[in-house]
Design a protein that fits this description.
The complex is a heterodimer.
Chain A (H helix, E strand, L loop, with lengths): L1 H6 L4 H4 L4 E5 L2 E6 L3 E4 L4 E4 L6 H7 L8 H16 L3 E4 L9 H4 L2 H11 L3 E5 L14 E3 L1 E4 L2 E4 L10 E4 L4 E7 L2 E10 L3 E3 L10 E2 L3 H4 L7 E4 L6 E4 L13
Parallel strand pairs in A: 4-5, 5-6, 6-7, 9-10, 10-13, 11-14
Antiparallel strand pairs in A: 1-2, 2-3, 3-4, 8-9, 11-12, 12-13, 12-15, 15-16
Helix pairs in contact in A: 4-6
Chain B lengths: L1 E2 L6 H4 L4 H9 L6 H11 L4 E4 L6 H14 L10 E4 L3 H17 L6 E4 L5 H9 L4 E4 L1 H8 L4 H5 L4 E4 L2 H4 L3 H16 L4 E6 L5 H7 L12 E4 L7 E4 L17 H10 L3 E4 L3 H13 L7 E4 L5 H12 L5 E4 L14 E5 L5 H8 L11 E5 L3 H15 L13 H14 L4 H8 L10 H13 L13 E3 L5 E3 L2 H10 L8 E6 L13 E7 H5 L6 E4 L2 E9 L2 E6 L19 H11 L10 H13 L8 E8 L2 E6 L5 H17 L4 E6 L4 E5 L3 H6 L5 H4 L7 H9 L1 H14 L20 H11 L4 H12 L4 H11 L3 E5 L8 H5 L11 H20 L1
Parallel strand pairs in B: 1-8, 2-7, 2-8, 3-5, 3-6, 4-5, 6-7, 9-14, 10-12, 10-13, 11-12, 13-14, 17-21, 22-26
Antiparallel strand pairs in B: 15-16, 17-18, 19-20, 20-21, 22-23, 23-25, 24-25
Helix pairs in contact in B: 3-4, 7-10, 16-22, 17-19, 17-20, 17-28, 24-31, 28-30
Classes of the chains: A alpha/beta, B alpha/beta.
């Protein structure tokens, strides 16, 4: 019943039953409805495209957006870490919005990052916005990471036989139109070989999964897993609608 | 108040120089009393509001003092003497033309020029250097002129400011921008006189305060001249022999009768309330247009060039009728219009009177207008409007104070003009009527916002847009800031419009480029469409194909039955004044005999089956129908307030585990429907209607809803753009200008959770109170009906509930249904996939 769906929205414990478990190249993945992937076999939590300090990047060119985006993003990440208690935390690239963003991070944000790395391994994968390591943030800095049959990198690439890929970069969003209402959500986009993660950053824009650039990543049909407050929604790509315009990431 | 007689005293005429008198005589005219009175006010150095009906020579009255002074050679060379400000660019151009003629005929050595967005850059530059005697322009151009260092030179010698259609500007954000500009103009030219020109309004004192600087702590007002009213309008309601529809707004039942009226007149203006209705009615009229009469279409979404063509054809008297929206409420006088048809409910008496005035610009003959109600409730509304017009009753404007986002724009503009002291600028700003009560703290918060965003977390000091200098004055940090200001000036946010381009269907169903632009539609309208959906636009049924590079591509559709039923562009809510009229009509059965029989019968049935809404009570009916349970309430507070109420009621019913599914609202009522039996819940004491409708819903429930409300996000976006936090999007320029825009929804979410008291959120809430969410009206209603809920449990739908029930399926269903809709879509797709496998 519809009304029952609505009434459990705030009930987090029931939501966890509805976690989406999918298989990719033989590995079991759990899709967190807030937009993270958890690998139980490796106890690894993976998130993409934090774009920390995007707000201050705008401020520098005369558009003073609210300066709370980095802490909002890190607070969400802290909540995910709290939920999954991973051994490894992988940030899948574009963690920082630009090359100087590390220097602009405030003390509160630095402390939050440090707290996240405590007791676990923190892995920074290089992204196109943050190609160079920022050593003072701790952790290890890699171009890509292999975990079992999975390769983790920022931008999707060629996927070998028997291999699966986790990537970010595209900030996928899906749009549905139903009964005169348009719903636009961040989502995972995946097929049997790869899964593109949604952006986690508070100011990260989105690219529609029907956009040619994103659609070209998949040879056949693919699936959008829409994020939500309690669970993800699995929607075939053809049921999603293209966008009016795209907001730059 | 200074009443004016139509026959001027002989010595008043004596004020007029001989060549003016000769000019009047040569035309067989005599100067009107109010024209001479304005001249006398000018001589006495008084700023004055002139209230005059259309056709009374209002514009000439406004300019006469300037023309007389200029004819006496009292203006130096290259000195701007009179500034005329109009809400419409086209009106400024037209008035300039009408002014050129008497000036030329009297041989006055006067230079008259316009300045609008269309004026070539070279002429604009020359105008700064070598200004004309009279400059006719718009509020946005004034803001731009004032934001430059040469403003004192340009405006220092200004003698008079003429504000046309002041009633249309005051009370809006554009009015705020103009009021702030006036404050600066008065600072630059302390002796400048202001003349306000206005149609009749409910409260002239507000407009009178506009005309003079407001001293702190008290009110000052300009003088008032009221021209005698013209002949009373000949207004009637079309009584149809056909069956009167229960719902809907297109009045197609009266199509033949309207067509007949059009054939009988020289020129008819057919006003409707929304662009969609305009499109529909235009199509239907052409279907029965056997005489092939030239009937045209005009609304705000059509391409500008197309609108201009229609206006030009109108001016030349080549059209028999124009179907139009509020796009023609104001504008150039067309002498040949002899009938106004107002289709649908008038929604407000002031708007109706403005529209009636579009027919016949001769003062001594009545304007003729016919109202065509489209459904039964609209009959009541039209009847209330007839009475309001007969009594000359205007809608009261909702009281509001100047918007903080507009102030932010102005502060940046003033910094571009030159360094300012905080308290001096505050004093100047509070001389403007809308900002008279602006506190120093709020002003400081706005300046702080302009400088660094005004966040509690002082993260952006080094990126400040304006900075404090050693002497305490504030100035722009760098020239790029001034450039940014110029791109953002204005309060009309229309960047969310998308062009509609008609393309030919190519091979393989692929659309091709290169067709004609038909006009623009709101982006949010397009967002609810899927490729293949059909809708009516620019007089045709179109099929939506795709969005390519900021343009909506459409092809002609062979369908005659458009799939997307409603295109919301330009709906007005029912005014409080007319709502009271409708309520009082319902509560007084002795007045029903004056109503059409069908309507009186309908109300009689309601009295028999249920109850009539009382004058002050809130009637709430609950009943089952088709396996669902309904709650219908009749607040008569307009669609916007009802939508907000519907959102809040569904939340509360959900919390009470009464499983609401959604709601619909119209101007008179709202219907909430769900799975649980509401009558039973009330009977068993599980639901208390007094609690359900308690005004405390405007506390936490409202806050929780605002967090995710799309309407609130849209309101915030407009404030953020006006205030300069989000850059305007310039369609087509994104690529070359490397313009990267930020989604205002993301900004709203972050700001709301981290600094809910931020000045921009306060500005958005202030807008929400009177704008898209109409919270203030809802709040007034909830307080009024506390303890006065009249609940009637019924076993079936009541006659009065039928119209709003018919909206179900016609209008988009509201509610917090996003999660449910997603789950439903997912389940359906799974079903589809599984079914295919079986």
């Amino acid at each position: 019943m519809l009304a029952d769906e609505c009434s459990v929205v705030d009930d987090e414990s029931r939501g966890r039953e509805a976690e989406d478990r999918i298989a990719l190249a033989g590995a079991e993945l759990v899709l967190d409805p807030f937009g993270a992937v958890y690998l139980p076999a490796e106890r690894a939590l993976i998130v993409a495209d934090l774009h920390l300090e995007k707000g201050s990047a705008f401020a520098a060119r005369g558009v003073p957006l609210p300066p709370y985006d980095s802490r909002a993003t890190l607070a969400l990440l802290a909540r995910l870490v709290e939920r999954w208690r991973p051994r490894v935390l992988v940030l899948l690239g574009d963690t920082l919005h630009d090359r100087r963003a590390g220097a602009r991070l405030g003390e509160v944000e630095r402390a939050a990052l440090a707290a996240l790395s405590r007791g676990r391994e923190l892995v920074f994968i290089a992204g196109n916005h943050d190609p160079d390591p920022v050593p003072e943030l701790g952790g290890i800095h890699l171009a890509a990471l292999n975990l079992g049959s999975l390769v983790l990198r920022h931008e999707p690439g060629a996927v070998g036989d028997g291999e699966g890929e986790l990537s970010g970069h595209y900030h996928p969003v899906a749009r549905l139109v139903r009964r005169g209402r348009a719903i636009r959500r961040r989502c995972f986009a995946g097929d049997a070989r790869r899964l593109v993660l949604p952006a986690l950053g508070a100011y990260a824009g989105g690219l529609n999964i029907r956009d040619p650039a994103l659609a070209a990543l998949f040879a056949g049909p693919y699936t959008a897993y829409l994020t939500g407050p309690v669970r993800t929604y699995r929607i075939a790509h053809h049921a999603c609608v293209p966008d009016g315009r795209q907001l730059a990431g | 108040m200074t009443p004016a007689s139509d026959h001027p005293e002989p010595d008043a005429v004596g004020e007029l120089p001989a060549r003016f008198l000769r000019w009047f005589e040569a035309r067989g005219w005599a100067p009107r009393a109010h024209q001479l009175e304005l001249l006398a006010k000018a001589r006495a150095g008084r700023s004055t509001l002139l209230i005059a009906p259309t056709g009374a020579g209002k514009t000439l009255a406004g300019f006469l003092p300037s023309l007389v002074e200029l004819s006496e050679g009292r203006n130096g060379p290259s000195r701007l003497h009179t500034l005329y400000i109009s809400p419409l660019k086209a009106l400024a151009v037209d008035v300039a033309r009408n002014l050129e003629r008497p000036a030329a005929e009297m041989g006055l050595p006067i230079r008259i020029e316009t300045r609008t967005g269309d004026t070539p850059a070279s002429r604009r530059q020359r105008q700064r250097r070598d200004p004309p005697d009279i400059l006719l322009t718009t509020p946005e151009q004034i803001a731009l002129l004032l934001a430059s260092a040469d403003a004192p030179h340009l405006f220092g010698g200004l003698t008079r400011i003429v504000l046309d259609e002041l009633h249309a500007l005051a009370g809006s954000k554009r009015g705020d921008l103009l009021a702030l500009g006036l404050a600066r103009l008065r600072a630059l030219a302390p002796h400048v006189q202001t003349v306000g020109l206005s149609a009749t309004v409910a409260d002239p004192d507000t407009l009178r305060r506009w005309l003079v600087p407001q001293p702190s702590g008290e009110h000052a007002m300009g003088d008032l001249v009221v021209a005698p009213a013209g002949a009373a309008a000949d207004l009637s309601m079309l009584d149809t022999a056909r069956h009167l529809p229960w719902a809907g707004h297109s009045a197609l039942h009266a199509l033949g009768e309207m067509y007949r009226l059009i054939t009988q007149q020289t020129t008819t203006l057919v006003f409707v309330n929304t662009r969609m209705q305009a499109e529909l009615l235009f199509q239907e009229l052409w279907k029965i247009n056997e005489l092939n009469l030239p009937i045209a279409l005009h609304h705000g979404s059509l391409d500008v060039s197309q609108r201009r063509r229609v206006e030009a054809a109108m001016a030349e008297g080549r059209l028999k009728a124009v179907v139009c929206t509020s796009s023609l409420d104001l504008g150039i006088d067309w002498g040949n219009v002899d009938l106004v048809i107002n289709v649908g409910a008038p929604k407000g008496s002031s708007r109706l009177m403005q529209r009636i005035g579009r027919a016949n610009h001769r003062l001594d003959e009545p304007s003729r207008a016919v109202m065509v109600p489209a459904n039964r409730f609209e009959v009541l509304e039209c009847r209330a409007a007839l009475e309001a017009v007969a009594a000359g009753a205007q809608d009261a404007k909702v009281e509001r104070s100047g918007a903080l986002d507009v102030l932010a724009q102005h502060v940046l503009g003033m910094a571009c003009a030159g360094p300012f002291h905080l308290d001096e600028l505050h004093r100047e700003v509070t001389t403007a009527e809308p900002y008279a009560l602006l506190s120093y703290e709020d002003f400081e918060a706005v300046v702080d916002f302009v400088a660094t965003g005004g966040y509690a977390l002082r993260a952006y000091e080094r990126f400040a847009r304006i900075r404090r200098m050693k002497d305490g004055r504030w100035r722009v940090a760098n020239p790029a800031v001034a450039q940014q200001y110029r791109l953002n000036v204005g309060t009309i946010v229309e960047a969310s419009m998308l062009k509609v381009r008609l393309v030919k269907a190519g091979r393989g169903g692929r659309a091709r480029m290169g067709g004609r632009v038909l006009g623009e539609v709101e982006e949010y309208f397009v967002e609810t469409m899927s490729p293949g959906d059909t809708f009516v636009f620019a007089g045709e049924v179109l099929e939506y194909q795709a969005i390519v590079e900021e343009e909506v591509q459409v092809v002609r559709s062979s369908s005659t039955d458009p799939k997307v039923p409603s295109y919301a562009g330009g709906k007005f809510p029912l005014s409080t004044y007319l709502a009271a009229g409708v309520r009082s009509m319902l509560a007084s059965p002795d007045r029903w005999p004056t109503l059409p029989e069908q309507v009186a019968d309908w109300l009689g049935m309601q009295r028999l089956r249920s109850r009539l809404p009382g004058r002050e009570d809130l009637l709430v009916e609950t009943f089952p129908r088709g396996g669902r349970h309904y709650l219908v309430a009749y607040p008569f507070e307009g669609r916007l307030a009802h939508q907000t109420l519907g959102m809040l009621l569904t939340r509360r019913l959900e919390r009470a585990r009464l499983r609401p599914l959604g709601f619909v609202a119209n101007d008179y009522a709202l219907a909430v429907y769900g799975i649980s039996d509401i009558s039973l819940a009330v009977a068993q004491g599980r639901l208390d209607l007094a609690e359900l409708f308690d005004a405390d819903m405007l506390g936490d429930d409202l806050e929780a809803w605002l967090a995710e409300s799309a309407l609130m996000k849209r309101t915030f976006r407009q404030c953020a753009i006006i205030a300069g936090l989000i850059e305007r999007r310039f369609p087509g320029k994104e690529k070359n200008a490397r313009q990267v825009t930020m989604s205002s929804d993301l900004v709203y979410d972050v700001l709301r959770s981290h600094e809910p008291g931020h000045v921009l959120l306060r500005a958005a809430r202030q807008d929400a109170a009177t704008g898209l969410l109409d919270i203030r009206r809802l709040s007034d209603m909830l307080n009024r009906i506390a303890g006065r809920i009249d609940h009637v449990p019924l076993d079936r739908v009541s006659p009065l509930a039928v119209p709003v029930m018919l909206e179900i399926g016609r209008e988009a269903v509201f509610g917090e249904a996003a999660e449910a809709l997603l789950a439903e879509t997912e389940a359906e797709l799974i079903e589809e996939a599984m079914g295919a496998g079986r």
